[in-house]
Amino acid sequence: MSTAEFDDVKIEDVQELEKEIAMRGTASATEMEARDVSVWFGKRKVLEGVSIAFPKNTVTALIGPSGCGKSTFIRTLNRLHELIPSAALAGEVLYEGNDIYAPEVDPVHIRLKIGMVFQKPNPFPSMTIRGNVLSGLKLSGLKRSNHDDIVEHTLKAAGLWNEVKDRLNHAAGDLSGGQQQRLVIARALAVNPSVLLMDEPCSALDPGSTLKIEETIRELSSEITIIIVTHNMQQAVRVADNTAFFLSTDGTPGHVIEQGPTTEIFGNPQDQRTLDYVNGRFG
Amino acid sequence: MSATIIFDDALVADLSQQQPQTPWGRRTSKFRTVVILAILIPAAIVTMLWWFSEIPKPVLMVSIYLPLQIVASVLAAIAVRGTKSAIDAVIIVSAIGATIFSLVVLISVLWSIVTKGMQALSAAFLFQNNEYISPSTPLGYGGLGHAVVGTILIVGISALIAVPLGVMTAIYITEVRGRAVPYVRFFVQAMSGVPSVVAGLFILTTLILTGALNQSAFAAGLAYAILMLPTVARTAEEVLKLVPDELRTGALALGSTRARVVLKVVVPAAKTGMITAAILGVARVVGETAPLLLTALKNDKTVLNPFSDPISALPTYIFDNVAQPYPDAVIRAWGAALTLMVLVAILFTLTRMLSAKRLGK
Prior knowledge:
The complex is a heterodimer.
Chain A: H1 2-26, E1 30-41, E2 44-55, E3 59-63, H2 70-76, E4 87-95, E5 98-99, H3 107-113, E6 114-117, H4 129-140, H5 147-157, H6 161-164, H7 177-190, E7 195-199, H8 207-220, E8 225-229, H9 233-239, E9 242-247, E10 255-261, H10 262-267, H11 272-278
Parallel strand pairs in A: 3-8, 3-9, 6-7, 7-8
Antiparallel strand pairs in A: 1-2, 1-4, 4-5, 9-10
Chain B: H1 9-16, H2 29-52, H3 57-81, H4 86-120, H5 123-127, H6 145-176, H7 181-191, H8 196-208, H9 217-242, H10 245-253, H11 258-269, H12 271-285, H13 290-295, H14 314-322, H15 327-355
């Protein structure tokens, strides 16, 4: 009997473990998590009680009409929000389980692990294409010896390598807008972040460049966690595993109306406002 | 059913012979006549007055020709394009008139400096010093080499002090954004109003009369630095403000420290403007005479040690010579003015050329 009991216990353990592994397979581990995040500019509250989990190596799209606080929210995730003098924040942002706003955390270190691509391409005009890709290493003081490999690898990952491989020492300002945006994606990847935040990365680009960047996002998502703000609903459907819908009505602070797998949000939304928004009835 | 496009050979030949044209430049003959009249009538009237009246020529041009031309242009504009274009005509003609007026003033100043200064120029004038030379010595003996050395030393010392300080002040205002920014900005602005003689007096009373310094190139450099600092700081601040904030946040998002953002992104992006700030600073002080009279005095010998002796610079050399009752001394002063101008022009061209090296290409 004792052996049978022992076996039972063992089987339960194994089942538990199997369940855990299955969880990891479907939902995977959480890389970042916002818990009850509220944001103020001065006295004005612009975001209220946002809680979203970002599973590792997935793409999460943040959608919603202009002015609902999506960009503000994404900037709290790598501590860029605090650069605005009147900014305030409540709640927690966890990265690998630790609060990035804890007093002992250095924001410089956080921004190194959580990279960002902005709405407007912002290559450094005083540097060459190659210099821009490597600028993150220079700016953060990381020491790497294989610079040529990094340049080639990240430019390939950003889908720009073939267009610029023969003119790496040209000024970055000579590139077109779409190329510049892919260049800054390569630049963000060069410091090897584990999360990449993208704030409407395609809003200033033509459809061809947009497509290339979306391909890049899909390819990158096997290695890093991507959080993307977009106004383009088709883009959210094309690239994102999960989607969160933000809304701010009549001057109330923005908050998350609905979140979940992208297929659910677009195919079977639970909230009437989500349904209206994803079908283009407002916003 | 398929349609066949038949090309007309003549049309194809005609198309291939098209020449580039500017159809927007074609005018009606009425337009041409009116414009020609609007130019000729005022010109004719003024030419008559120029030859047959006693009105002084500059007065004639400014107070008769310019208003006349404005009125003629307004009438022409009304005749061609209606009353709404009258204001256009007034603004355009006034702008052209004002530009020509200031060009005439500038060119005549330049002309008198060049024509009079050229008389003094010679190898001896440029490279010898003023030792054993009296104001009555004829041209061809002695020169302003010592003053050129003095100007380079004094301006160099002041630039070495004021340019880094000014740039750092601008960085404090635009990049560090500390609590004291409004006060710093206020003081910098107030300092740009300091009369140059006060800067000289300040160095004289605080450093020279107390025995800390001799009257020397270094003392004069300090006085110049006081004058140069606000210009450099204000210009550098304006230039740094032009650097888009996206570059700063972009660099921060890459895990950069603030110091590296400033040193490796913001300042390089504003490099040309920073050089302009330094040039404007030098231009602000290079002709200042009053501080030199108090802090550097004069010296006919060539002085290379910036701490030991009084020293002459080009402004003091001009000041000394222009007040002499000897024509040759006055000519020397003109020569020195020309030298100063050319020196500044060479300096500016060199810095521009050095800063114009673009990357890549």
